[in-house]
TrEMBL record:
Keyword terms, alphabetized: Membrane, Transmembrane, Transmembrane helix
A molecular function (GO) term: amino acid transmembrane transporter activity
One GO cellular component term noted in the UniProt record for this chain: chloroplast outer membrane
InterPro entries cross-referenced by the UniProt entry: Tim23-like
Protein name as annotated: Uncharacterized protein
GO BP term, pick one: protein import into chloroplast stroma
Protein topology in the membrane: Multi-pass membrane protein
Major site of localization recorded for this protein: membrane
Subcellular location: Membrane
Top-level division of the source organism's lineage: Eukaryota
Keyword Flavoprotein: no
Keyword Oxidoreductase: no
Organism for this UniProt entry: Oryza meyeriana var. granulata
Region feature Disordered, mapped onto this chain: 1-21
Amino acid sequence: MRECRGRQAGRGSMAHSGFSGSLTSPKFDLAVNMGHPFLNRTVDGFLKIGAIGACKVAADETFNYLHRGLTSATA
């Protein structure tokens, strides 16, 4: 039998496939200048938390809407 990289061909050899990639989150930098570094960080934090909360509510409402099965034909 013909050997392939130290293994016998046709016996115990499996096809190998792979996937390589990377996932990065979108970056959104907003410069807030309220005149004091602590106040700047506080306002920036509230804006980020508000954006995350709005995205969560939108995702929850979309899931509930789709889960109930309401479409324009049944509404």
